[in-house]
Design a protein that fits this description.
mainly alpha; two-stranded antiparallel ribbon; 4 strands; globular
Length: 431
């Protein structure tokens, strides 16, 4: 009898320990998810603020889009989808075309998402291997570097609103990242933003009215799309400009995690997930979705690659779309705080590109050096030329859409690599 009692107590103790461990693990995952949410929050709500969409709907569509993406990609890719900046010019153009009616913009966004779906089916048919041979490390590495370099000026522009606050935020993140260990190190971004927020409160640059005036719960103003040929013709071609960016983001994400996501679950699945997420956003009244460099930066810093955390982030984003008070707290985070932490995130992305070239031991011959320099010059240098001289280097698609920057650089890099390889093969055959 006493042995049974002892066994029952031991069993009960194990259950309690297991329950306690599960609770602790759940809390840790939630904290990490919130950290990802903070990292992407500013950019995701900035697009709807600039274009006129409802930020709450943008959060809901980003969350639903991320969950859709994860289902399509077999829950393997640690990605969060947020509002796409590439669509801003065409959204504003169609908005003006229809006197501010964003319903027609939604129709165009749905059409763009559908093109992604069609392209994904095409890639599945021809095979990912045929795509991969055009994307060696000497092409992908510089593409990743350009993604980070192009984002750094934006981060500095945000930080320049108050360099002291930005420096404190950035410094806190760097100190924790280089000196802390374990779970504390994984929270470097969250702690840094908190410190920056507290400093901002002390010096009075936090808009607390956003928090006090926000209602606790509110239903986002979901809106149905309308379709028109001019709107679709204006918005849909932007897919050509963001296709290479998608490849760059997925490749960067894979390089951080140490897996080839282009191969498994496959580029066709990641494109399909992106396309369906964008279509979903268009149907409920949100801006187009895309993979986010900020979250790749968080992965690189925290070294926690669990896709389940990104799905939890998606649930949090959806919740914030309805819980106005909490969303208001995040909206009140000052721009220089986000600028300071973004400098770290975007720098990490460029470093990943450098590591890609180094770790794959790219041969530093004339061919590869020329390819890498061309991508870097066109991808980053063209932005400087456009800013200072007003000249955009790229391929015009429509009056409002032009393949430029990273997309143009990537296309030129891929073509240059293919030409060099073909020339080398022909020379070898003739020898």
């Amino acid at each position: 009898m006493s042995e049974n009692v002892i066994e029952t107590k031991v069993s009960s103790s194990k259950v309690q320990e297991s329950s306690s461990h599960s609770l602790k693990e759940g809390i840790m995952k939630l904290i990490l998810a919130l950290q990802h949410l903070i990292a992407m929050f500013g950019a995701t709500v900035l697009v709807p603020i600039v274009t006129g969409f409802d930020p709450s709907i943008a959060l809901v569509s980003a969350g639903l889009g991320t969950l859709t993406f994860h289902m399509v990609t077999k829950k393997k890719v640690p990605v969060f989808l947020g509002s796409s900046f590439a669509f801003i010019p065409v959204i504003l153009s169609v908005k003006q075309m229809y006197n501010g009616d964003l319903s027609y913009v939604q129709g165009g966004i749905i059409a763009a998402g559908l093109i992604y779906v069609i392209v994904s089916l095409f890639i599945k048919k021809i095979g990912v291997k045929r795509i991969e041979k055009y994307l060696p490390a000497q092409v992908i590495g510089p593409m990743i570097i350009v993604i980070g370099l192009n984002l750094i000026p934006t981060a500095y522009g945000m930080a320049s609103n108050n360099l002291m606050v930005a420096a404190i935020t950035l410094g806190t993140a760097l100190i924790i990242n280089f000196t802390a260990k374990g779970f504390l190190k994984q929270l470097a971004i969250l702690i840094a933003v908190t410190v920056g927020y507290i400093v901002s409160l002390r010096i009075g640059i936090v808009d607390t009215k956003l928090i006090t005036e926000a209602s606790l719960v509110a239903m986002p103003a979901f809106n149905l799309p309308k379709f028109s040929i001019p709107a679709i013709a204006t918005i849909a071609p932007v897919v050509l400009a963001v296709f290479m960016e998608h490849i760059g983001d997925i490749t960067t994400n894979g390089n951080v995690v140490g897996k080839n996501f282009v191969e498994d679950p496959g580029l066709n699945r990641t494109l399909l997930g992106d396309g369906l997420a964008t279509m979903l956003a268009g149907f409920i009244g949100g801006p187009a979705n895309t993979t986010y460099g900020e979250n790749t930066g968080v992965l690189a810093i925290t070294k926690n690659y669990n896709p389940a955390i990104l799905r939890l982030t998606a649930v949090c984003a959806i919740s914030l779309g309805f819980i106005s008070k909490v969303g208001a707290v995040l909206k009140s985070i000052p721009v220089p705080v986000m600028g300071g932490i973004s400098l770290m995130l975007f720098s990490m992305i460029s470093l990943i590109g450098v590591k890609t070239i180094r770790n794959t031991k790219v041969e530093m011959n004339v061919k590869n050096i020329l390819i890498m320099l061309t991508i870097l010059a066109l991808g980053f240098g063209s932005g400087i030329i456009e800013k200072h001289f007003g000249v955009t280097i790229g391929i015009p698609i429509t009056e409002t859409v032009k393949i430029s920057g990273l997309s143009f650089a990537a296309i030129v890099g891929v073509m240059l690599n293919a030409i060099f390889n073909a020339f080398h093969k022909k020379t070898a055959e003739n020898a």
